[in-house]
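Usage example:
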Amino acid sequence: MPDFEQPTILMCPPDFFGIEYEINPWMDRTKPSDHATATAQWNALRDILISIGADVRLMEPVPGLPDLVFTANAGLVWKETIYLSSFRHAARQGETPVDDAWFQAAGFATKSLPVPHNFEGAGDALFCGDTLYAGYLIRSDASAMHWLAADMGCRVIPLQLTDTRFYHLDTCFCPLDPTSAIYFPGAFDSYAQQTLKQIPRLIPVVEAEAARFACNAVVVGQHVVMNSGCPQLEADLASHGFIPHATPLDEFLKSGGSAKCLTLRLDGEDAAVW
Ligand code: ARG
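Running the assembly step on the lines above writes:
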């Protein structure tokens, strides 16, 4: 059984990261990422996370799996269990055996969803308080979220994603603590927008900053780490008592990912009440 003494985050170095296929509107093989810049940006993110008190664990990168760097998609961590992803696109399906092996070695119970549900882990499933907020349609299936909630015995709120630029829930929604979250309203259908309003402190993000992946933030206590170029959100977070940290992650935006996608919290998110 894993035992964590401090906030613990899984990352995977970008040794084999690249834009090798196109499975979201951000990816364009004619606009490759620069390896040296991506490595420097990833190192800077890791160093910030360590400086704000996180223990960063590493998964070994694997050639031919350029998106393994996005550890948020390994699965959903819940107590000592990880519900492994079942990727929609074949290009990423080879990641799951690698994730399975890592989590087993780390002492987690690994569980897979029954076929035929697609599910992309913490990219689409985020706890705020005792409720699992679950993005569906573009990558994960709503049926996967109901299966998960039944297995965990928790309340689930499925949220329909409507804008392919924000294809994972973690690109447009980020719980900050059990009663607070940031979100980009335009990424959700009107019912989901209405439902999200039950979160007591819901901070909207403007479209220009959402398109810089402002919502794809990593929360460690009061600290919120995100891509640079989102000054409005930084100011809003500071006015609510959070401490924003901005760091450039443009090389990963070319793949449709940013700070949060590059991490997976192993000891439970600060916003989660299990
Ligand atoms: N290129 C990856 C994909 O399209 C990016 C994944 C970003 N991860 C996330 N949790 N939003 O699947």
